[in-house]
Amino acid sequence: MVGKPDRLNKVFKPRDFPIAVMIAVTLTILMTTITANKINAFLLRDARQEAVQDASREAEMIARSLQREIIKFEVIAHAIRSVIERHPNLNQQEYQQLVKPLVETSPSIINAARSDGFIVDRVYPFESNQAAIGLDYRDIPDQFPAVNEVLRSGDTKLLGPIDLVQGGTAFIQRSPYYAEEDQNNGGPATGIISLIIDRDRLIAQTMQNHGPGHMDIALRKLNERARPAGLLYGDPTVFNLHPVLRNLPTDTGTWQIGLRPSTGWPQEPGASLAVWVATALAYGLLGFLLLALWTMYRSKSITENQLRSAINSIEDGFALYDKHDRLVFANDKYRSYYTLSGDAIYPGNTFENILRTGLEEGQYDEAIGREEEWLQERLAAHRNPCEPVEQKLADGRWLQIAETRSPEGNTAGFRVDVTELKLAREKAEAANRAKTDFLNIISHELRTPLTSVIGYARFLENLSVLPAFKKVQDSIAKGHEADAQKRALTELHNEIANMSNRIASSSDHLLGLINDILDRAQFEAETIHLYTAQCNLRDIVKSVTKTLELKAAEKGLTLESDVSDVILLADAKRLRQALINVIGNAIKFTETGGVYISSEQDENQIRLTIRDTGCGIGAKDHEDIFDQFVQVDTSVTRRNSGAGLGLAITREIINLHGGDITVDSELGNGSTFTITLPVRLCKLGYAA
Fold first, then answer.
1. Are 291 and 325 members of one domain?
2. What's the pTM value of the predicted model, to 2 decimals?
3. Among the four 105, 466, 474, 603, which has the fewest Cβ within 10 Å?
4. Is there a domain that residue 94 lies in?
């Protein structure tokens, strides 16, 4: 401690130190005031923005939930209508049995009533709504116009809020239904199916599922000009307090949801005092550091060697260039990155000369073939630094270059090796692209069979539109001979059977896709189990070829196997699944020739080979095809369907058995997949 005052006296003149302290304190107070006010203003703005974003998310979820409920009401009404139109004479008990499982899916429905014309003759639940039996809508002025309009127009209407006869407020969805004779003459509907939806229960259920307790909500109608046209729920003053708004279209107009925090929007930041304290401490520390830096500047001769040593010890490359772009200092790490131009990295040499040396040695990968153009671009970025840039070297490494220019014109630059980060990012981007491709493919793959199932189901639901059905009707009406009627019935039977087969085929395709996705999820969660037992490999292969031989025959392909009679300890079901994936793919991508399955074995393992004469796979795709969500052709309009999960699942199954699967292929020359399995397995992953 004796030497410290003497050292300060050497660094400062007697009057300099008090002046420096005064300046530091003044700047600290000034900057603390400015910065703390700005930070608090930013925090308040951020708090308000976060509150608005939270309310927006909640409003969006509430809107979606209400939309789903409205759609569910339409589905329930349509289901009731479909049965009633086919069986118009349901008694009360039969009506209850029909409606109960449908209504129980939506707790907000308190009554599902049917009217014959204007008079209610069926209700559910009966116990709480039996007073409504015999109710004539013509005696209810508030409801009669809407009921009459639905009967006349045949349109479904969601009305409300309406004060109910039995008490309470509700929305009512009214859907018409038609008896067979009313459908044919084009007159008004036979009656109405009315779903009484408890308004408060619907909103409470939605808020319980999606709305936090600290939010105030209100709903109102909008007219055709998007102006308020009546309150549906809640306190109308919510709409006067700058709420978050979300529109919800319905078949009778637009509802608007208003949502705001119960306590109002934030008025002041929560950390005001803490910001002042932290800012004061930060600027106090900064003032202290400035004094320390001034001390270092005044004692440069003492600290210069320490500074150089410190710079050399950092993990990243560092270089300093003066205002004429001459090198002042470069640490050892910086030199180690640029080994090819290392001889040119010395103090006094210009940045341009160092770059030219590297270009002559082929050091910069991206400059090959355009050296002069690249040089000018690099010099421009160096002289006007802004955002960090990435640079690839000839040895495969990636550097992140961050440069800054001082007021005096000096340029300080850092070089950080980001090779691992770059490779990881590229891998992550590739995985993300693969998942995006998978989502595009699976959306198409699921939609196609669903469209087929729904389309043919609609035909089966309404047979009267089928030409074959019309022939049967015509044959019966005209009193054709029995043989003619029999032929018409046979044609109708064949047409219905064809539709049924297509529905079954599309359903099997859809089930296969869903099973692949579920299997993939089980493998990801490591919850898949192998149930191992002794099984004959030849029998497994034979069952697979038996399953796929029709598929091969339809394409005119041969499907042959020559597999040894060998006993394995394995999960026969999973092994069969893996073989179906590989052999099924071989058939799918083969147009002429065939698929050949063979085997060979030694004491420890057996190799099963599946060879096809198909289109083949490029060498760059050999590894990728075994990754999940990956397909060589990812276009949703591609000729061969699939979700890109089959080979990934196959590899997981084979790996769990302690084996491996590889591919040998080239474009245009077919593919050979080789599955290697141990004859005797000591331990199986996840085995039960």
1. no
2. 0.39
3. 603
4. yes
